[in-house]
Amino acid sequence: MKYLMAFWVVFAGFQGIARAQLRAGDVAVIAYSTEGTDSFAWVGFRDLPENTVIHFTSSSVSNGWFRWGDHLGRSVGPGPLTWTATNLVKAGTVVSWVSGTPKCWSVGAISGGVPALSFSGDQIFAYTGTIVSNAAGTAPWSGDARQATLLFGLNFANGGWDNVTGGGGTSYIPAGLSTNNATAVHAGVYRNAWYSGPLAGSASEIRAALACPGNWTDTTNAVIPSFWPSGFSIRPPDGMMIRVE
Q1: Using one digit for the tens of pLDDT, what is the confidence trace for 165-214?
Q2: How far apart are CA 169 and CA 57, in angstroms?
Q3: 200, 165 contact by CB (below 8 A)
Q4: Per-residue DSSP letters for the chain?
Q5: In-domain check, residue 175
Q6: Per the domain annotation, does 75 fall within a domain?
Q7: Beta-carbon neighbour count of residue 63 at 10 Å?
Q8: Within a domain: residue 233?
Q9: What is the total count of domains within the chain?
Q10: 180 is in which domain, residue-wise?
Q11: Which residues contact 176 (CB under 8 A, 6 or more apart)?
C-alpha cells in the first residue's frame, strides 16, 4: 500500500509540473527570416501540454510599454500571432512559422495576426497572458504587459537592444527578461539567420549559446526552414537527455 501511495505522490507531482505556468526561458526563438515571406521558429525547453497557448509579437518596447500599432493593435490583421498546442509537445520540439499560403504552424493551431518582420531591425517576443491597450501610455506606446508573462525576446538585424530610445528597428528589453540569463538575446546584424550552435544541453546552456552571435548562421536567402534545427536534446534537472528529431 505504501508503494502505491508513493506512486500517486510522484504521479501527482508530475501532473503538477505539467499544469505549471510557463516562465521566462521556457521557450526560445531559434530562426527567423525578414525577406520574402516572413518566418521564424522556436523551441520549447519543457513539455508543453495540450491547450498550452503562447503568443508572439514583433512590437517593440520603450520605457516598459509595447508599441501598440506595430503588430498588436493594427487595424488590419491585429496581433498577436497565437500558437495553441493541439496535443502534448515534447521538450526540444522545434515549431516553425512561415507566413505563406497557407498560413500555419508546423505543429499546433494558429490564430491572431501575422507579424511583419523588418530587415532593418526587429524583434520577436514570446509571452503568455495578455497585452492590452492602456490610455495611461503615451501613443503609440500604449501596450500594457502587466497581465502578461514574457517568456523570451530575440532582437536582430540591428546593433542590439536599445534602452535609450526604443522604437522603429530597436527595442528596450521588457521587464521580466534579461541578457543576464539569456532570456533576451541579440542574434546579430543578420537579416535572415538560424541558430547553428550546440543542440544538446540544459535550457540555460542552450540559451547561453543562443546569446552568442557567432552561433548564428546568416544567409541572403529569404526562407530556408530546411536548414533550421529540427530538434534539440534537452537535459532536465535529473540529467537525463530528452531528444527530439
Answers
A1: 666 688 999 999 999 999 999 999 999 999 999 999 999 999 999 999 99
A2: 14
A3: no
A4: -HHHHHHHHHHHHHHHHHHSPP-TTSEEEEEEE-SSS-EEEEEESS-B-TT-EEEEE---EETTEEEIIIIIT-SSS-S-EEEE-SS-B-TTBEEEEE-SSS-EESSSEEEEPPP---TTSEEEEEEEEEEEEEEEEETTEEEEEEEEEEEEEEEESSSS--SSS-BTTB-PPPTT--TTTTSEEE--S-SEEEE-S--EE-HHHHHHHHT-GGGEEE-SSS--GGGS--B-EE--TTS--EE--
A5: yes
A6: yes
A7: 11
A8: yes
A9: 1
A10: 19-243
A11: 24, 149, 150, 183
- Which cell is 232 given? 534539440
d(CA 87, CA 85): 5
Residue 171 is assigned to a structural domain of this protein: yes
Task: Specify the residue for cell string 497581465.
Answer: 147
Ramachandran area for residue 11 (φ above 0: left; ψ -120 to 50: alpha; else beta): alpha
Length of the chain, in residues: 245
Average per-residue pLDDT in the chain?
A: 86
**And the C-alpha cell for 213?**
552571435
